[in-house]
Amino acid sequence: MTILVLNGPNLSRLGKREPEVYGRQTLDDINRELANSFPELSLEFFQSEDEGKLLEKLFQVEDQGSFCGVVINAGALTHYSIALRDAISAITIPVVEVHLSNIYAREEFRRKSVISEVCAGVISGFGANSYHLGVRALLGIVRKATL
Ligand code: DQA
Which CATH class is domain 2-145? Predict the structure, then answer.
């Protein structure tokens, strides 16, 4: 089973960026831990600062046909990108939204996600563990669909 773990803008700065909010692990650390935790899965990792590249990646994995879903941390795009929302709507594979921080316990503008409605579900506030829970949630969806 192949899963795409997709990260949006500024997540390349994890480890250095506001460690009191996002922790001290780098994105590479998080990705490595994730791959080690799910040796039975094939995880592909992609991060971009560029909204268009994230959209292209979603369409690529959809068209490729071998991916069973996506775990996405869209960073700030979460809060305003209708283009990203439309791209998630446009694909058929399930997408699970994750956040390191609890976006519902932060500034007002972060409490609204424009992508949640088109995602299978949201996991927010568990630090790097949000990604692990996201992969687990996705596996649950895929297994249910193939029963
Ligand atoms: C984030 C939360 C967003 O509000 C923020 O813009 C990010 C990271 C998180 O993982 O907690 O870049 O998605």
Answer: alpha beta
